[in-house]
Amino acid sequence: MSKYLPKQADLIREMEEKPSPLKGDHAKMEWWEMPVEFREGNFCFPAKPEVIEELGFSNPRKWNPVDDDWKLPEGWQKILMDGMRERIKKYRSLKLYLDSCVRCGACADKCHFFLGTGDPKNMPVLRAELVRSVYRGDFPMVEKILKGFAGSRKLTKEVLREWYMYFYQCTECRRCSVFCPMGIDTAEITIMVREILQLIGVNNNWILAPVANCNRTGNHLGIEPHTFVQNIESLVDDIEELTGVTVNPTFNRKGAEILFITPSGDVFGDPGVYTMMGYLLLFEHIGLDYTISTYASEGGNFGFFTSNDMMRKLNAKMYHEAERLGVKWILGGECGHMWRVVHQYMSTMNGPANFLEEPVSPITGTKFANAKATKMVHIAEFTADLIHNNKLKLDPRRNDHLRTTFHDSCNVARGMGMFEEPRYILNKVCNSFHEMPENTIREQTFCCGSGSGINAEEYMEMRMKGGFPRANAVRQVKEKHKVNSLVTICAIDRASLPPLMRYWNPGVSVYGLHELVGNALVMEGEKKRTEDLREDPMTGFEDKEDDVD
Amino acid sequence: MKKILLPLGMVGGLALVPFVGVQYAGLDYLFGVVIPYAAALLFVAGFVYRMVDWLRRPVPYNITSTCGQEKSLEWIRQDKIESPSKPWHAAVRVLSEVLLFRSLFRNNKAEFRNGPDLAYGSSKWLWLGGLVFHWSMLVIVVRHARFFFAMPPGFIDVLDQMDSFFDITLPAFYITDALVLSAITFLFIRRMADAKMRIISLPTDYFPLFLLGGIVGAGVLMRYIAKVDVMPVKDQMLRLMNFSFDPPGEIGTLFYVHLFLVCVLLLYFPFSKLMHMGAIFLSPTRTMLNNSREKMHVNPWRQPMKIRTYSEYEEDYREKMKKAKLPLEKE
Fold first, then answer.
1. Chain A contact present for B113, CB below 8 A
2. How far apart are CA A269 and CA A272, in angstroms?
3. What DSSP letter does each residue of B51-97 carry, written as one string?
4. Other residues' Cβ atoms within 10 Å of the Cβ of residue A415
5. Is the pLDDT of residue A548 over 50?
């Protein structure tokens, strides 16, 4: 267990005893009077100087948020204010969302971080007020006449500390925006604040190290081409051992019909690798003409949590590689923020991709008209179409050892709108699926608590708090329907939900959707299956001999 | 408490200004002609400026908040309103927000219980209170048209009669007067009663509530209690509508309090959160279409950018790639 993880009893005591507006306790001071305290466990480590240098970002240095001296550059206030003004010019959303909040409070209890910490500054309205209060001070005339009336303040060191703390306690999940009568999206504000904080070197190593890796090696985990290939080949061996079927992925192959891109966590991390095995089995099952790139070997995009330019730069590799390989279109694996970027930003940033064709499923002939411009299709859309057209031989009983529920990933839910495809697939590949309570799924889904690049080990305590609303909803179906499997379509979820489940709901395992597809697929020439892809025994398929023993 | 008392005192002070000005200083020309013209002018100019100021800023990316199923495969039912793909879908989305407060209707209340446990209950009071408040205000503003036109359009009469359906006082009692006062009271109490609301509220949240309360209060007093003579008021309003600078006739001081607070509201409006009235029509997360993969959205400030190309990558890893038998561009 991590040294950064508090004992559950201690955390529960804190949650139950600490006064908080969530529990209706009277706040004894105004929010701007509340101190900001950094201590080990409530911040992600700042980026290492060599990472900053590699990326060409500002102010590389060793520093610690716990210290008084953050070693900020000369004139940091002006750098931040200029940065903010520039972005207010470039983004209508930012200006509008700073201007139009009426503080109606509808968002207040919608944030998973507020529900998990009870900290008033985690109410989305106050998170945005951290910036608004400074932005309003940008009009000195008004403040001179109405001192204290407009609630404005100067950009001090204390405000900077607040920004650093609370804009890394927002996972850009957009749940607050669903409830806002004005459609204010706190994620827009968080994105901008994190971006301007980069300008003075106030940052997060868990985001920037993967960004540097991704730029250099092609993926966040920094896997070099030969290792990337080896890793997938070892999965190929595992598949052969388990199923008796040989799958044949190709790498960097010119002339393939489809380029497949998925988060590198699926290639390297547990339990992501089982999802990868599911993809490989599926592609073999339908005889897909596809290739995997070692250069564009990352679906995710931590640039999205860094700056607009960095997001664009990392994303550009997808089209660049697709053009070089001469594929017709791109198929994307299961990932949350990857799909926010692909769905809402990719063609705008790096399109038009006229060298690609409008995606058509080579198996069913279905035209993916909704991906006509971006030319990238989500694997759940692709697989749902295959199942709908009876192109897959599935035996859902092979997942009978799993009693599942489905976690909508925030970005796929509120930044793309894909709700039905994964549910359709899940219902076809397993026999036991139970939804979590309605206020915690679909467009109201709760973040895993670790999205947007705060999945760091040293941040465990905050992650367990931020993930509490999700864990609590899982607990309800665990108790009511004996659910033991949490299915997701997001690589960050696959990395962050297992520790969350171990902490709050021991006995619940985390699965990728296509891992379950892989379990259920009846492959041609397969041997008798008794174990699922992670070598757990399947119910009802036990070896007869075992029974005799 | 300061954040409540400050705006309350401000509204009280502002109400006294015309009272003293007209009653004791005889400034009815200032309060009846000059200030109303100035306030109306600044309101229109300010409102237009704010709208233009928002509209001239680019919307570089398509950032629709999707609260329902996207348009994807033909056999999957799209949620056209919550995940709009055609302009009329988005128009319905925004209008249902404006007219019916669609998102507030979704509101729920999270409750923390020891265990620890979270429960979510329905919470439609804000939706109801907000809706009653805004619709009553609209009806009240519209029925005031009878003061501004010698022959008000026919629907004003209908509206007026509907509003005074409960004909229990003389002059007839308006339902919206009661509704708006209850709604303002509710919205005020809500800010006081809930710990979350107490901490997020600023003086600028209380001020418009008190100001509107003052305006409605003065109006109600005028109509039902002080019974200010309506005819000179209407004459004065008609003169203003004709851009006349003639001095007003003999009108009760209470009217000047009412009118001055309205002028303060008009002046305050464009420079405050009240501009949400215009902003709600522009919010990119709601006005945009969720068709960003189907149709390329253009970012007007996009510049060419240098990326790490495949050739640079191959250059760095050629030997390792060769060993892994990966195809290469250059041997």
1. no
2. 5
3. HHHHHTS---S------SPPS-STTSPP-TTTS--SHHHHHHHHHHH
4. 30
5. no
Instruction: Give the pLDDT band of residue B288 (cuts 50, 70, 90).
Output: very high
Spatial distance between the Cα atoms of A82 and A189, rounded to a whole number of angstroms? 16
B326 touches chain A (CB under 8 A): yes
Chain B nearest CA to A95, separation (Å): 7
**CA pair distance B204, A102, nearest whole angstrom:** 9
10 Å Cβ neighbour count for B196? 23
Q: Could you tell me if B290 lies within 8 Å of chain A, comparing CB atoms?
A: yes
Write b or e for each residue in A453-468: b if 16 or more Cβ atoms lie within 10 A of its Cβ, otherwise e. bbbbebbbbbbbbbbb
In this complex, the residue of B63, B196, B280 whose CB is nearest that of residue A108 is: B196
pLDDT, tens only, B31-87: 999 999 999 999 999 999 999 999 999 999 999 999 999 999 999 999 999 999 999
As a whole number of angstroms, the distance between CA A296 and CA A214 comes to 9
From chain B, pick out residues whose CB is under 8 angstroms from the CB of A337: none
Please name the residue that has the structure tokens 């994620």: A187
Nearest to B83 by CA among B109, B102, B65, B104: B65
Residue B248 is encoded by which pair of tokens? 């007003």
For chain B, the residue count is 331
The percent of chain A in helix, strand and coil, each rounded to the nearest 5, is: 50, 5, 45
Q: Which residue of A has its CA nearest to B291?
A: A370
Counted across chains A and B, CB pairs separated by less than 8 A come out at 321
Q: Model ipTM?
A: 0.95
Contact across the interface for A151 and B307, Cβ inside 8 Å: no
B318 reaches A (C-beta below 8 A): no
